[in-house]
Amino acid sequence: MLFGEILRMAFRSLGANKLRSILTMAGITIGVFSVIGVMTTVSALRGSIETGLSFLGTNMFQFAKWPTGISSGGQDRRKYQMRRDITLDEAQRYMKLMEGTSDVICLKVFNQDGSAQAVYENRKTTPGLTFGGSNEHFITANQYSIETGRNLTAGDVDLGRPVVIIGQTIVQKLFPTESPLGKVIKISGRTYTVIGTFAPKGSAFGQSQDDILIVPITRYLSDFGSEGVTVNIATQAPSQTMYNETIDKAITAMRIVRGLQPEDENDFELYSNDSLIAAFAKIADAVRAGALVISAIALLAAGVGIMNIMLVSVTERTKEIGIRKSIGARKKSVLTQFLVESVVISLAGGLAGILLGICVGNGVAVLLKASIVFPWDWAAIGLAVCSGIGVGFGFYPAWKAASLDPIEALRYE
């Protein structure tokens, strides 16, 4: 019997029991969808997230009180909460100790309650702006640039001048038809003169990076107090070759300004773009592993379902098999037909799962403003696994059908 004829008979048999075939396929679809959906989402977001995590400039590292990834509760949070805040005096002393080693040291603090709102005359922004204080190195350390006006200067910081640089979201909301330069705006009840605007930067993690206002750090702490405020310190190494050497000197300087003894452990955190990306990679790997485990369980259950349905099909078609064998059908032809039916069910379910997973995964990516991807590697692996499931779980029913004695099969009712 020609393979094409065997294939037509297999499809005809599946078409005769459409609902049963669809329900059997659904198990494979769910298993493949779970892994393809997760892999598509992670792949689509990877570039966007790595870009978002790379908020520090080239060859930059940062000291902070809090590490990344600390949850809102639990023992870890209490441990870090007990640490002393990094004060402005400590940060400024650190800068003096690092003179000659690094020319770019950014000090920054940010409003944490999400209530910051900017007002100009009868116009105002929505609350929740990113509002903080920094020095003249903010744009270098955080990869911003000035579009109009000027940057903060060392004099602004030393004298605590009431000046502010605003992002494009604030420009569009408060100054839609006029230049903001020289205008006085009110932020959280305090007045500041606009001296510059940041160039558009877009979004990261689905959130705008253009709803930002930066004032001199000294002015910010003067206006809003330093109680409970910790300063983050970003430092740029002169070159990539001096990066590790600069970090070693910076850690020593931080330990000195924090008054730590040689036997004391660091009471501050050090992180860089690479460490943040590595932390995300660990999370992504854990998500992938979880998806693979869930998918493996779902696919195993689906494979058992395929075997069960194929055994039922063999039982229902025993007399048909007996007739075919009595008129000359070979054992190989019967085996091939039932294997084809099993593989077709598995592959059809796999294709549906792949398409659904890609659509859902990229849908999530679009919502978070990430690029759309097609995970060719995982799609190919998915199809290969589905083929293996079809053959593996369909072989016993196919072998059982092919091994039926034609005389006994013809007697079956």
Task: Outline the structure in words.
- The structure is a single chain.
- Residues 70-74 have low confidence and may be disordered.
- With 413 residues, the protein is of the alpha+beta class.
- The protein is built from 14 helices and 14 strands.
- The protein has helices spanning 3-16, 18-53, 75-81, 88-97, 138-141, 154-159, 168-174, 217-224, 243-257, 273-316, 318-326, 331-367, 376-402, 406-411; strands at 60-64, 105-110, 118-120, 123-124, 130-134, 146-149, 163-166, 184-187, 190-198, 203-204, 207-208, 212-216, 232-236, 269-272.
- The chain has two domains: 3-52 and 279-411, no CATH class; 84-267, no CATH class.
- Helix 2 (18-53) runs antiparallel to helix 10 and helix 10 (273-316) runs parallel beside helix 13.
- The protein is elongated and about 105 Å long.
- Strands 1, 2, 3, 4, 5, 6, 7, 8, 9, 12, 13 and 14 form a twelve-stranded mixed β-sheet that branches. Strands 10-11 form a two-stranded antiparallel sheet.
- Strand 3 and strand 4 form a beta hairpin.
- Residues 21-241 form the MacB-like periplasmic core domain.
- It is found in: Cell membrane.
- Its main location: membrane.
- Pfam families: FtsX, MacB_PCD.
- It is a multi-pass membrane protein.
